[in-house]
User: Fold this.
Amino acid sequence: MPELPEVETIKRGLAKNIVGKTIADFDCDWKKMLNRPLSEYKKVLKSLKVENVKRRAKLTIINLSRDWNILVHLKLTGQLVFGSKTRCVVGGHPIKEGFDCLPNKFTHANFTFSDKSHLYFNDIRKFGWLHLLTDTELEKEIEKMKLGIEPFDKNFTLGYLKILLKRRPNMKIKQFLLDQSLISGLGNIYSDEVDFYAHVRPMRQVKTLSEKEISLIYAGIKKILAASIKAQGTTFSNYRNANGEAGAYSKQLKVYGKYGEPCPGGGKIVRVRIAGRSASYCPKCQK
Assistant:
């Protein structure tokens, strides 16, 4: 699943391609991904203009005219593809042949714009969704998710992080970083990298953290996410940015996905399971 840097990269890329376009038609063959009847999507979306593309946590928000919005979650294998006569750009999980002969067998939703370009939603496993919401409904929907503070919010200070940590003293550090109700946007990749940056083992309890370690965790969240956004995200076999390009942050990863490999500090990276999630760390560098 794309994490904050990947969704931020998708948001920025899509904004360059679809803002200002007018929707002429919409179609969908997998109605479970919709929150309203298809007929209502068709009726509401026709003639609406794309005004902005935003991000909240791991969600993409497409703001439309007349106080309507599309809330997008790519989930495990979702992919947004913009296609026109002159270009094809993809954001999300790459699917082999996913943007060949569009629409294709992986395409489950299709926004057709007035200039004949398209925004397709492809998904192999059909876990992703597109919700059509008014401004009021969007606010309530996001509020219902109880998403935590954004890492780049001005209110996310070292002091605020300490407050959050005090609320979950018995939680494992890895679990704490993954809890979207506390801090939104981090997943397996960046939680492992933040733990390595702070030299802490992911299975330790929050209450064992020293003041120095807390400061390092805070700095790591800010520094690592910013660096990944600058590099346009992390790319393995399942992610491309909104221009179809591979994110470069994978070259900077220290521990995630490197089980059994030597760590930069001279140790060997191991992998453990914490509350059903995998965590990679170096026993030598992380205490």
Q: What stands out?
A: Residues 235-242 have pLDDT under 50 and may be disordered.
